[in-house]
């Protein structure tokens, strides 16, 4: 998957078809083989609570359909434990991005991931000048979906990768649940700049460079936080946002019955660069 495909002539823009209900494909080797619908409900326990603005949006069927688009995600070539750990890590990070939890929430704060599907009270349009990914008139590119995709320079390549015109229809990330999950999985699976992919890190396929070693970036869940938002959260000692990401991850690992692994935080890691909200800005 190319990070920045060559510019191409855009076809005439037509309105996308309305989102249709999705049915999970029965695949004995896919993510559905390790995450049943009952387990999905247990993992994201309160996402459909009436207090969550995204209730009813993030469905099991949409999650499985999106995973089918990225067969290497928790892929069948990994061990059973490694597959489960990748799902736990993905849900851990995205649950932090969409959390509705609070300290004394029912079942604990880490049972309240996936409460939101778009940024609250967004005022800015998140449009910046970009020749390759120009903003569409009147469109806003604020945070949407599990990874809270933001800015035209992220919507453009994400849509290009999943073959959806997200520059003209960014609202699809908050109205079509499969597209929403697919944008998050695209971010998860795609290396960029001097960063590895989150997938490569959690599956043990990433080998730190000498620069990574010097920056204290060691294999483990903490590097994923660094990839996503290291510019704000890493290298500053203990941080409640980092702990929140870890808390979700640990809960999901516990549900799966697997070990957490080492190096869960990024407290002593130097950031890669600017974090998820601006990771293409320097391209």
Automatic annotation (TrEMBL):
Q: What is its EC number?
A: 3.2.1.14
Disulfide bond positions: 52-115, 127-135, 234-266
Compositionally biased tracts (Low complexity): 10-21
Spell out the InterPro entries in the cross-references. Answer: Glyco_hydro_19, Glyco_hydro_19_cat, Lysozyme-like_dom_sf
The record's annotation in Pfam families points to: Glyco_hydro_19 (PF00182)
**Keywords assigned by UniProt, alphabetized:** Carbohydrate metabolism, Disulfide bond, Glycosidase, Hydrolase, Polysaccharide degradation
UniProt keyword Nucleotide-binding present: no
Tagged with keyword NAD: no
Q: Where is the active site?
A: 97 (proton donor)
Ranges for the region named Disordered are 1-24
Glycoside hydrolase family 19 catalytic domain segment(s): 52-74, 179-189
Q: Which PROSITE patterns does this UniProt record tie to the protein?
A: CHITINASE_19_1, CHITINASE_19_2
**Domain of life of the organism encoding this protein:** Eukaryota
| Any one GO MF annotation of this record | endochitinase activity
GO biological process entries: cell wall macromolecule catabolic process; chitin catabolic process; defense response to fungus; polysaccharide catabolic process
Task: Give the reactions, separated by semicolons, that this protein catalyses.
Answer: Random endo-hydrolysis of N-acetyl-beta-D-glucosaminide (1->4)-beta-linkages in chitin and chitodextrins
- The protein's name is chitinase
Q: Which organism is it from?
A: Eleusine coracana subsp. coracana
Q: What is the lineage of its organism?
A: Eukaryota, Viridiplantae, Streptophyta, Embryophyta, Tracheophyta
Q: Which gene encodes it?
A: gb01072
